[in-house]
Fold:
Amino acid sequence: MIRSSVFVVIFLIISFMAKGQVDLDYYFADDVSFSPDIPTPSEILGFNVGEKHVSHDQLVRYLHILAEHSDRMTIERYGWTYEHRPLLLLTISSPENLSRIEEIRNDHLRLSDPAASANLNTREMPGIIWLGYSVHGNEPSGLNASLLVAYYLAAAQTEEIQSVLKDLVILMDPSINPDGYSRFEQWVNQYMSEVKITDPNNVEHNEAWPRGRTNHYWFDLNRDWLPVQHPESKARIDQFYKWKPNILTDHHEMGSNSTFFFQPGIPSRNNPNTPTKNMELTNRIAEYHAEALDRIGSLYFTKEQFDDFYYGKGSSYPDVNGSIGILFEQASSRGLSRQTVNGILEFPFTIRNQLTVSLSTIQAGYELKDELLSYQAEFYNETADLARNEPVKAYVFDGGKDRTKTNSLIDILLRHQIATYRLQNELSTANHRYLPEHAFIVPLAQKQFRLIQAIFERSTSFTDSLFYDVSAWTFPLAFDMTYAALTNKDYKNDLLGERLLEVPRTAGSVAARSNYAYLMDWDDYNAPKAAYMLQRYDLKVKIALKGFRTTDGRSHTPGTLLIPVQNQSMPDDRVHEIIQKTATECQIDFYAVSSGFNQDGIDLGSPNMANLEKPKIMMLVGDGVSSYEAGEVWHLLDNRFNIPVTLVDAGSIERINLDPYNTIILVSGSYSALAGVPREKLEQWVKNGGKVIGIRGGAKWLIDQKMANVKLKNTQQDTLNQRSYGDMSQHIGAQNIGGAIFETTLDLTHPLCFGYPDNTLSVFKNNRYFFEKSKNPYNTPVLYTQDPLLSGYVSADNYEYIKNSSAVIVSTLGRGKSICFSDNPNFRAFWYGTNRLFLNAIFLGDIISNSSSR
Ligand SMILES: [Zn+2]
Structure:
């Protein structure tokens, strides 16, 4: 019955569209009249919404014109993308509200201040609704619907809209990921045909690599709300805290054969840090979407498939901030029109659903306003009790000598409005002495209580064993930071020193000018950046393979860089100038030495001072390669370290001269294009002295091609021969490693581990590649411990494989090497701890002795 009515609806849409008309009548109910003074999208753009995909530039132009014509909205640019496209925010409300918008905003923010919220009369206050569209650039229905939502809010003449705008401030981010969207929009528009091609095989429906989902560096911005590593997220989070909306919507698309989804998601997978009341309100809001979609005959589902466990997503992050995040997923037409199991899916139909739920969100926000505002106040009022009842009182962390890494963690905390303090007094715990010079403390008795827990806590027990995304993201572990949870026993208020209002910036220094040599330690995160900068200026750089102590008593660990003043291709003054410039730009210290004779350990002219080769890096990209992993490498080297990496399509390696490169990176990928001659060429290049680095699937490919001497553990198949069919997806899903954190031990004498302050390192694992321990006793730089699970979910079977397995193995091949990583050291740009292993593989891979890697 339901089915046949759907076909009727679809049939009507098809016959409607056959006329090539999708005017406003299609999108809006008959009883809405619009002001003739407000330009419609088609009056400005020359086409109706849904007839083609609007370009980002066109969207920006229309919204600016709309804001000029309407006294109900203002528009601002709140940031820029990497490709310098503007990030826009519309503020929409009654003209009266807009005239005192700062007052409204400031009152609203007082709701999240327990000391001030009791005196507020929420009935007099507008609610704040945030509509966010198409964070995934190739999920275009939301972004295209934003044109109509904005037009409606500017032009609709009903009495109801007047009341709604009096009671609400609607913030609209029409395009969260303009760079990704623009890739997609270019693709579909360039293949648009006069006659609609609904065949899913049509090129229009099959975007080329790297596709438009991600941002410029191929990152999923819908995972970056918590790590905040990209300009889009940084700017957006600032706006989020500027407003603290009551509802935030996140409009997506899913597989073409699906229908429509709105939250609530799977109840058993809610994050325990989200209050139950949030779920109740989510259910209440859902009733509005259901009613609105029923009215237009659209099918939908809830409580399946999606969840709100990982707080790095747009629909979950608001949940840990006194707001209600709502995820929408529309079946994608992947172009203008596409065959699906439900019939032909038209682009305008997908836009209309997104428009409909945008308006039902506004309706829900309007009718539930008082409850939503009270809930927000309650959320923050509760934090004092929560903090009192929580055994952990504060987290303390020690960045050691690595200022860059420490500052990067502090940057994240401050962006999330977490009060962070310098440690006032020395503190000794069972395992560590925390010194005020480089330790920081985060007390839990503050309004971001829940978010602090979400960022610092470790969890190893879960009510569900399936996760839509990762099961763990403990930040101090990702940053390889020594840290401790302080209970009543250790915590006292006088541990809190100065509160950080901004990220500390410590200028690097050069102790003095030298006519002999300079030294630079390898213990700061920026060390590789500095090394490359020196090399870019053509300075010859050496690296100590063993430790030493200079005559002035300073100890230097293996990995210390030596820049002799003699034998450079430039005058002494210029050497000093470059060192100074590098110290400033990389915030790193250099030490001047006047003698090569050392008190202890090797001297500066020792054979254990190796030449540091300048990396010349190529990475294989293109079809079949993981754009996420490739993007993580590209972003890390290019954006963070200013190290060039040539991106080469794997299919073109056969015609490329590999000689100019000394490092080739293979992230996960099928590499079917390398079969035959290209594979031989690559192997020969390694044998001639090249260094190939394989990550996850890239490592697996090297192993399968016998270019790495690594044995994968033989994973047994489940022997139980009967299970209930209904448990299948749960059981199979639970065998995945969705992403958990494990402990490894490092061999600090191995060049891959140079610069690490101690021999334990947390690694992130989200795959089932398990390396057998190398037979060569000198070749275990990074080894999973006997009982390594630190945080997250892993099945019992998988856990056995991980224990005592190798995380990194170096193999000799002719005069060259392969370095295999079982896991991704660069995950989502916030695994600062394991980044160092990867950078060491690039810079120091060549100096690893061949007898340790056979
Ligand atoms: Zn999406």
The radius of gyration is 29 Å. The longest helix spans residues 276-296.
